[in-house]
Design a protein that fits this description.
CATH superfamily of the largest domain: NAD(P)-binding Rossmann-like Domain
Distance between the termini: 39 Å
Largest sheet: 6 strands, parallel
Helix content: 40-55%
Shape: globular
CATH topology of the largest domain: Rossmann fold
Radius of gyration: 19 Å
Strand order of the largest sheet: 3-2-1-4-5-8
CATH architecture of the largest domain: 3-Layer(aba) Sandwich
Bound molecules: serine
Number of domains: 2
Length: 317
């Protein structure tokens, strides 16, 4: 990959992935695709080209692909799970109609495509612990429905047309640069902001709600590494389980208290998020990703917590 379009470049993942690609891929041109109202700012704006790129407008995507001779598209446009429950038609439009627009452009112009899937692609019928790579996927949220369909449609374009689609099922992503918007796992970001600001945290999920979580540097490594993997070694494509840590609110709170002994957390359960979280795995088995393309995370809960607090102190205090 050399000429790359990142769609959703100002979101939680995109804002960091765009910068990483610009830094690390030698000779690359990385175009920051954004929608009006979410323009790139600061370093993201200064360090490379940016173009308005609405996934619902296929001709806009095609124009950018032609203009920059794009060979790889990172499609990060999505409504997260809790927002998607409030706006299911919009979620469908962005996640499904947007995806097929991208896949059609990729088919015509020979681009590789990464569209993330998620722990949200699983449902209540999925085995909760050590969730296998290949298992039951019958999600009950609109977000999950679109993520399973994303996996299927991406595989379809690979098998039918040879479009080089690959992806991973992201856990809840924890980061300090850009906030996530409206996900079920957002509490695991928000809790760090509250701790560093010295505020009590109102946790929207109950004690005992375990989910896979991941620190952003590991997630970004996965997104780059999967697209650079030797295709001959890929048995799976859309999408790979990847995992690094699993915790519930009590465990992350206890870890934060090692740094802030007076940190306080109370429970204010959000029924929408709780229902979604209860339908997702506790911990995925990521052995296929490890075997097929060498996935290996660097951060556990303790090292992530130290790093998050360090960076949030710089940002907030
Ligand atoms: N973090 C996402 C969400 O909570 C799941 O992939 O919606």
């Amino acid at each position: 990959m050399t000429n790359i379009l990142v769609i959703g470049s100002t979101g939680q993942i995109g804002s960091e992935l765009t910068m990483k690609l610009r830094r690390e891929i030698a000779g690359s041109t990385v175009v920051a695709g954004y929608i009006p109202g979410a323009e790139p700012k600061g370093e993201l704006k200064e360090s490379g080209p940016a173009e308005i790129c609405n996934v619902c407008d296929g001709s806009q995507i095609a124009d950018i692909v032609r203009k920059y001779d794009i060979d790889t598209i990172y499609n990060l446009a999505a409504l997260l799970s809790a927002v998607a429950e409030r706006k299911p038609l919009m979620a469908w439009d962005i996640q499904m109609n947007g995806l097929i627009n991208i896949l059609e452009v990729a088919r015509e112009h020979g681009c590789a495509v990464f569209t993330p899937s998620s722990i949200g692609s699983f449902g209540p019928g999925t085995p909760r612990d050590n969730t296998p790579q290949d298992t039951i996927q019958r999600p009950t949220s609109m977000y999950g429905v679109t993520k399973v369909a994303t996996e299927l449609l991406s595989d379809y374009y690979f098998h039918k047309y040879g479009v080089d689609t690959r992806s991973v099922r992201f856990p809840g992503l924890i980061s300090y640069t850009t906030l996530p918007g409206g996900g079920t796992t957002d509490y695991a970001v928000d809790i760090y902001y509250s701790a560093v600001k010295g505020e009590e945290f109102a946790c929207p999920l109950a004690a005992g709600t375990f989910m896979d979580m991941m620190y952003m540097p590991d997630a970004l490594d996965a997104a780059v590494k999967i697209m650079q993997a030797d295709p001959a070694k890929l048995i799976h494509r859309n999408s790979f389980n990847i995992a690094s840590m699993s915790f519930d609110p009590e465990i992350v709170c206890a870890e934060i208290r090692k740094h802030y002994p007076d940190f306080r957390m109370r429970y204010e359960i959000d029924p929408v998020r709780q229902t979604i979280a209860d339908s997702w795995p506790n911990r995925m088995d990521d052995s296929c990703a490890r075997a097929e393309w060498g996935w290996e995370p660097s951060y556990d809960l303790a090292s992530m917590t130290g790093d998050m607090i360090l960076h949030l102190k710089e940002k907030l205090l």
